[in-house]
Each structure stands twice: as structure tokens, then as C-alpha cells.
Design goal:
Layout: E1 5-8, E2 19-21, E3 26-35, H1 41-50, E4 54-58, H2 73-80, E5 94-96, H3 118-126, H4 133-146, E6 149-151, H5 159-170, E7 176-178, E8 180-182, H6 205-213, E9 219-223, E10 226-234, E11 237-246, E12 252-265, H7 268-278, E13 288-291, E14 297-301, E15 316-318, E16 332-336, H8 341-347, H9 352-359, E17 365-372, E18 378-382, E19 388-391, H10 396-415, E20 420-423, E21 430-431, H11 437-446, E22 453-455, E23 459-461, E24 485-487, H12 502-518, H13 520-523
Parallel strand pairs: 1-2, 1-9, 3-4, 3-12, 4-9, 5-22, 12-24
Antiparallel strand pairs: 6-8, 7-15, 10-11, 11-12, 13-18, 13-23, 14-17, 14-20, 15-16, 16-17, 18-19, 20-21
Helix pairs in contact: 1-6, 1-12, 4-12, 5-10, 10-11
Length: 526
Amino acid sequence: MDLNAIYGTEEFEEREEHYRTVNSDMVVNADVCIIGSGAAGSILAAKLSMAGKSVVLLEKGGYFEGEDMNQRDEDMLPLLWKNSGANFTDDLRIAIAQGSVLGGGTVINDAICIPMPVVVRRQWRNLGVNIQDEEWDRATAEVSEAIHVTKVSDDEINLNNLMLKKGCTLMGFKEHYPNDRNCVNCMRCGLCHLGCHYETKQDVRVTYIHKALNDPKSKLRVFCNCVAEKITGSDGIIDGVEGHFLNRIGSAIHSMRVNAKLVIISAGSIGSTQILMKNSIAKDKTGKGLALHPAPFILGDFPFEIRANQGIPISYTLHEFGVTNGVEDGGFLIQAVYLPPLQFSMALPATGRQGQDLMSRYNYFTMAGVETRDDPNGVITLSDFGFPRVSYSFGEKELDIMSRGASIISKMWFRLGAKRVITSHMVKRELKSESEIPELINAIKKDPKNLLVGSAHPQGGNRMGSDPDRCVVDSNCKVYGFRNLFVCDASVFPTAVGVNPQMSIMALASIISDRINKNWDDFVSE
């Protein structure tokens, strides 16, 4: 079997990487098996393999390149997104965006790169996480270089984001500035959520995975279209992973067995929790403390064209009220954002003729969202069929934060000349003047069930910390009670980070990779 290759069940004529089609059951041996190829899994795979370990990386989604990403919502949602984008909490109130593709969420995100806030680092240490600032700083610098993080230049800020900038200045805010992004020579097509057709976004597939696959010292095999189901072993020692290869419609067609000396689960907050629960690992501790960064949106309808879908979707952020400005408890960021037409229509608080009316104004809207740093209010359980079920309720704090942020954005749009404001509340969906903002605040606080909210940042569920009775993993991300089983991804976050979490996840994965490489003999019996 070829090393430094990608395997999958899809038939391709030509791929950028060395590719092989899987046509039978497989049994492979490796030093390390990693489940999940997103922001954490790919970094772990690259750093461990380039340090001389043989690594098998399993990804449930497919292997797709820029040429496959045709910028059409109806094609890319089922190809790149978990559950084709129809991924909700159990009450269908919150849509949770997640990737299901080689590269995970880094393929469909907006490339925002905000380091782990200093406030959050300190809070985590107080909760028993033994990672010092020097490690965070070193890992952040390493990741930033690897994924080519640069600041958005003034000429890259589109009109939608400029409206946020103007609104911040008009209202006297001080802490607002362009974002850092992992993108090189961005084509500004505005379709980051559908994968980067031009491969200018430096997601982990085109950076970490590509580098590892083309490093002669590494020993990496990537298996796509492969779902991990069973973690095997006994007496606190894991000996491998079992699962199945899937065809495009999700049916199991071949079995997969990986014999491994060390196993790392990096399938995200919901996916990693599902695997642990299905294998009865860390019983009564998994699935607790899920945070979502719930984000309601506010639209401003202007008498001139904004064409917000043209250009970088999120290039500017208001930090005044967020953890990045030293806010210790809760807080929020405000980010300009826009969506491709199909996703935009699905997010609107109206259907039928009202929905058509709103879509007819697509080019005239500004849009911004309230990224809420929530408490870990959510819980993940399994259905009778073994599927993850996410239950989440807003606390008073979250409702206060979201209403405050929605109020600020509404004032901005009106003061910049909007003729009306469209909210994400199903009952109070339209404001005709600034005087109606208190009604929106009241609606959010008193009737949260009618508030449409999105989330792209599930965090928590398998808490990291020093208390083995309450935490799933220690500060090395090693599962309590096991010598060689790790969980490393956003699921181990003890709190929400309060910023787009990509850099926090990547930095954590870099830190844990170094610790595993350094202390290999402590975790593995040769």
C-alpha cells in the first residue's frame, strides 16, 4: 500500500495529490490513527507524520479540490457540508454549520484568523488547563506562518463591510478593524462558504496535508469516505479503530480496520462526542457543556445597491464589546457577513410572497451578525439509532447579549440611511424606524423561540481540565483512564473562546502534536 497518498471510494481521472480508489475491505497498521481531518486532525497528522510516525488519517467526507467546487449552492452544500447544511439543534431553532470533507470546516469557513484571546487563556488555566502563554504564542506563530495569515487590506474591504466600518465610526466606537485571514491573492468571489474554487484560501488540505503528503520523511495515508465507528482495546490500552467506507449516498460498501499504537479523535464537538458515546468511553462526562456562539443577524435595506455578495464575506469586525477587548464574562463581536443566494433565502424570517419580496432586495441589503460568547448551555445525547442530538437553550445572559448586539446593528443601519431593518425574529421581523428597536429587544428577550439563530462554532462537550471526575481529557488531551487515547479538537474547550475558533483549534493541535512527539514513550508501549 502506497504511503503519502489519499484513498477514497470516488473515481477520479486526475488529482493534485497521489490518489488511489478503494475497491475492497482493508486492514492497515500505523503508529497513529486520527479520526477527522479538520482544523485539528490535519495538523496532528502532518506534525506527527513528519516527525517520523506512521499516520492514518480517517475522514468521513470526500476528497475534493478547487476544480470540483463550482460555486453553486445546490451542488456544494451536499458535497462539502455535514448533512448537506441541514444540521440543527433538536428543536430546529439553531442551524449549526459544519464541514464534512477532507479539510473539514477550514474548507467552508470565511478564513477568519483571531488568536486565542489572553482573557480566555487565563480563564482556562483557572479551570485546570495547563497550557502557558508561551506555548499558545509559539503555536499561534507557527500556524499563522503555515496557513499564510495576513491582514485584509483597505482595498479588499467590500461595501458591506465598509458599511459596518462607517457605522462603528459614526457611533463613536474605538475597537474595530480589518480581520486577519488565511488567504493568498484572494479572488474576492464572495463564495467562501462553498469551498474555494481558486484555492487561494489556505485551508488545511492545501497547506498541512499537502505538505505532509509531499514530504519524503513523512509516512501519511489519508482515507476519505471512511466513517470510524468502533474504538477497540482493553484495560485502558487502545489497539485500533474499525469502520466502513461509504459510497456517495452514504451506504457502507467496504470495512476498514486500523491497528494503531495511539488513537486521536478529532471529529469536532458533535462528531467526537458521538464516537465516545457509541463506544461507552468517559461515561456520564461526555456531551456536557456545549457552546455554540449563537449569532442572530440584522439586515439593513438601503436605497442604493450594496452588492454584499461580491467581495470578501467577512473582512471587518467590531471588537468593542468582546473578549478581544478584555470583556471577561460573555460579550460579543459584530461581524459583517453575507451568504450565497440559496443559503440567504433559507436564513430569512419569511417565506412565500414575503420571502420573495426580501429576495428581490438581495443586492440592497447590508448584513451583520452578533457573535455571542455564550455559556456552555448545550448537551449532546444519542438517539435510539445512534445519531447525535443537540439540545440547547438560551440563558438570560445570552438573550441580553444578543438583544444588545441586535440593537447596536439596527441603530447603525438606520443612522447610515437604511429605509427599514430586517431582523431574524419571526414575529418582530421588520423595523421601520429606530424608535421600534425597544420592541425588537423585548421580542428577543421574551420570545426567544421565534428567534432564528445560526452557529458555525460548536465548542465543548468533552471538557479539558485537571479534575478526572468532571473532565474527559487532561491538559495533554489524553482521555482519563486511557494511556493512548486522545481527543483533540474544539470539543475539549472548557468554555467558548468568544472569537472565530479556527486559530484556537489549530494552535491547540500544534501544542498537543509537540507534546505527543516529545513524550511518545509515556503514551505508547512498543
